[in-house]
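Exam revision sheet. Question 4 asks you to relate a sequence to its structure. Input first:
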Amino acid sequence: MASGALESLIADLAEISGYFHLYTADAPPGPWRPLGTLLDDGPAFAARIAMVAAHLGTDELRIAASVAHLGISARIWSPVVGALVAHRVLLDWSADTLEWKDALGGPLPLRLPSPTGRPVEDPVKAAGALYAAVEPLLDRLNGLVLGEVKLAPRLLWGNTASALGGAVRALASARPHLSADALALGDALLGSGRLRGTGTFTESAPGEAFFTRTTCCLYYRIPGGGKCGDCALLESKPRGRAR
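Answer key, structure tokens:
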């Protein structure tokens, strides 16, 4: 695709939320580093966990690691899901094409310095290709976390599913005319690889997408924290029509 079209696509995604935002060539000063430097640097991630724990007011590093993991997972999913649903474009999405900037608080800054991608006809038919692009990033992120704290691997895959659910819900809310495609893609991805069995989507009306996970991210253990809206520990309640 032409670079101008991709720049316009990326600018449009930023209007959905900060988790969909991507910097390109006009990014503010760095240092910007390849995403792989985040996914492979255990000591740096351990320091990040400690900062998150201090910010949250907890001494349980596994909780801080889970929260940090969930936030980074949301950044890995949101832009590429948004591009596929809203623009029928599968972005080139890898640790080699993406860059990150170290910052604490808010969505992790990500940059595609030279965005490329290919058009697709149907987002759902491209779910396999999307999963194939994202899964290696998530697998490396999960390995990074497990190298620093003791957490159940299934909890981490639940976090990645929750991050996907957040992206789908944000899309459905911001662009109700895209809710059916967003939910269909979400369903297809939840049937892929290690996301199987991590959660379900429900829908009550266009623009009202819900996700329920089968695990818990542990956020409720933070002082003053509560259960997330998709938590498996919440009492059962109507969430709309099951898809």
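Marking note for examiners. Residues 76 and 209 are 20 Å apart (CA to CA).
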